[in-house]
Amino acid sequence: MKELLEKILKEGTVLEEDVLKVDSFLTHQIDPELMSLVGKTFADKYRDKGITKIVTIESSGIAPAVFIGLELGVPVIFARKQKSLTMTTELLTASVYSFTKQTTNNISISTKFLTEHDKVLVVDDFLANGQAALGLIELCQQAGASIEAINIVIEKSFQNGRSLLEEKGYKVDSLARIKSLKNNKVHFVEEEN
Ligand code: G4P
Ligand code: NA
Ligand code: NA
């Protein structure tokens, strides 16, 4: 997505070789116009796929996910990292290890929002090592829901998330694919065709 790549080049900054800071439009402050375009771009590809739910994880996955859900006219569910006071019904739960933070989080979704009748787009802001996406996939599997694709705003293609997900048979669809962040510069994967 051209507008996203331009935004990353203009406002993204590289921290410690392999981390991209995009807090001016995605992970802290949010650019609604750009997120709306993210929503339209993904929705256009999946309009005829019978998608019934968007599934993401708090917090930074929520903004792009909501715009995709708005475009497709389906609800958006975000997995919670902490159990909420009102989550009194049965839960689907998976554990997610973060390489970046070296911590494990339990993530959960109420069973009442995801069932075997659902066809899901899994959404996240970043794909690094794929652990968050794997956790969301596990929640969908527990519900018996099927997954059409994993939609990622920014993929760090030099980390192993994509190959891990593809090995398991999932389609990964990313709007920006970063080949390297070496020397504090963003290099994108060249588009094929
Ligand atoms: P993984 O899910 O792909 O395995 O990634 P990892 O555990 O390494 O990443 C942990 C967190 O860091 C995730 O967010 C992920 O989205 C985010 N992240 C990974 N790489 C980058 C990066 O280069 N830049 C930025 N800005 N974030 C990155 P989180 O902390 O679990 O959630 P939240 O921030 O959405 O609340
Ligand atoms: Na995230
Ligand atoms: Na984040």
TrEMBL record:
Residues annotated to bind xanthine: L20, T27, K156
Entry's family note: Belongs to the purine/pyrimidine phosphoribosyltransferase family. Xpt subfamily.
Major localization listed first in the record, in broad terms: cytoplasm
Top-level taxon in the UniProt lineage: Bacteria
InterPro entries, sorted: PRTase-like, PRTase_dom, Pur/Pyrimidine_PRTase, Xanthine_PRibTrfase
Protein name: Xanthine phosphoribosyltransferase
Gene Ontology molecular-function annotations: xanthine phosphoribosyltransferase activity
Keywords (A to Z) from UniProt: Cytoplasm, Glycosyltransferase, Purine salvage, Transferase
GO cellular component assignments: cytoplasm
Compartment(s) of residence: Cytoplasm
Enzyme class name: transferase
Reactions listed under catalytic activity: XMP + diphosphate = xanthine + 5-phospho-alpha-D-ribose 1-diphosphate
Gene Ontology BP annotations: purine ribonucleoside salvage; xanthine metabolic process; XMP salvage
Function of the protein: Converts the preformed base xanthine, a product of nucleic acid breakdown, to xanthosine 5'-monophosphate (XMP), so it can be reused for RNA or DNA synthesis.
Subunit comment: Homodimer.
EC code: 2.4.2.22
Binding site for 5-phospho-alpha-D-ribose 1-diphosphate: A128, N129, G130, Q131, A132
Involved pathway(s): Purine metabolism; XMP biosynthesis via salvage pathway; XMP from xanthine: step 1/1
Domain Phosphoribosyltransferase: 33-167
SUPFAM superfamilies xref list: PRTase-like
